[in-house]
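Why do we care about 3D structure at all? Because function follows from shape, and shape follows, mostly, from sequence. That is the central idea of this module. The next example makes it concrete: a single protein chain, its amino acid sequence, and then its structure expressed as tokens.
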Amino acid sequence: MSAAPLRVTELQAYYGESHVLHGVSCHVEEGEVVTLLGRNGAGRTTMLRALLGLLGRRSGSVLIHGQEAIALPPHRIARLGIGYCPEERGIYASLSAEENLLLPPQLAAGGLSVEEIYQMFPNLRERRRSQGSHLSGGEQQMLALARILRTGARLLLLDEISEGLAPVIVQALARTIRRLRERGYTIVMVEQNFRFAAPLADRFYIMERGRIVAGFAAGELQARMPMLHEFLGV
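And the structure:
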């Protein structure tokens, strides 16, 4: 049996001298969509950044496909098959959409071809020669997601991909997440938009003050609504 894509044990993380993650433990199984829920400042984005080694100091254990990554630099962690779509998207304004798409290196076999990406995101085909600065917010978000699919990463970390987008774009992103899950991708999402996240996730973790305070499966969602009201106000 292959190792789980992600297994985190007693993860501690710091911004400078500030202790921001306090003994986080969680796991994500092959092909799952797992959503991290919580209020702003609960530590969810910090959690993604800590998994990638983008914080100054970490301790504990982060196993990615069975390999310990706690002491590795970010470029080595990426080569373990993990892709990150940050909240700020990171689109290069002076490059065309297609140049942005081709920019990251292929880190593993099995990445989507440009043609497969254009089939998944038809808008990007139409806008492939447009500068990054001329793309709409929704097009930039699609490009940020498409870009990591070229690399061969099979474990995707998605940070607030629905934020600030029109409902029609949010619906298109939801369809894309479902298609990626059908293709066997493993996805960890940070989402403030509960209506977007709830139908997509197989499991949920709730974070509060740098800790995971609860975890449950999608089938338990209705029974957990009082707790969600308490922690999230949903």
